[in-house]
Amino acid sequence: MEHSTGGLDKRTCEDYDPAVEWSHTDDTDTVMISLPGFKKEELRVQVDNLGYLRVHGQRPAAAGGSSSNWIRVQKRFTLPDNCDIDGIRSKFANDTLTVTLPKKKSHPSPPDGSAPEPQEDDEEEEEKPGGGRRPIRWLLVTVAAAFFVGIAAYVAWRKLTSSCAGAGAGAGDHGPGELAGAGSYVREM
């Protein structure tokens, strides 16, 4: 698929769909993405607050870089539920981007099989269906999360409907589907 970015820069981008391979161990999940012809400086690996790992980048189609034809890659993966986001690492070597997704350490139960003592919470509680009790904090966190997800979805929808130009238009521009702005957090790896 080809896209032309508006403005002075008349780039034509061809989307590249790379080969992706996942591997799993007890401690980590690893995703390997084959990106022949790309350089480390042409790629970005980001994690957002919605639970996605994003890999994107672009490079000139010709070796010299003087052509207006570019090759673009955009991949988005849902992070596993047990992923330790702070431990994610990426490495680019031999035309392959390797992203390591460490798993959260589970806390083993005591050897005697007894459960840990529950800690008392001084917060007000609300009645939940089925007779149990739930802290008010849970309700507040749920409402706040729904609010930010709604804002992020609205921002994404506005970006998609207002511009289909995409990557490469300028330093502050964001491509379709990139959730930058109110209610989103993106951390570059």
TrEMBL record:
Indicate where this protein is primarily found. Answer: membrane
Amino acid composition bias (Acidic residues), ranges on this chain:
118-127
Region of interest: Disordered: 100-132, 166-189
**Bias (Gly residues):** 167-180
Give the top-rank taxon of the lineage listed in the UniProt record for this protein: Eukaryota
Q: Which GO terms describe its biological process?
A: defense response
Domain SHSP, by residue range, is 11-118
Query: Keyword set for this entry?
Result: Cell membrane, Membrane, Plant defense, Transmembrane, Transmembrane helix
> Which regions span the lipid bilayer?
138-157
Any one GO CC term of this protein is: plasma membrane
Q: Where in the cell is it found?
A: Cell membrane
Q: Looking at the Swiss-Prot or TrEMBL record, what is one Pfam family this protein matches? A: HSP20
Q: What family does the database annotate?
A: Belongs to the small heat shock protein (HSP20) family.
PANTHER family attached to this UniProt entry: HEAT SHOCK PROTEIN 26, OS05G0592000 PROTEIN
Name this polypeptide is given: SHSP domain-containing protein
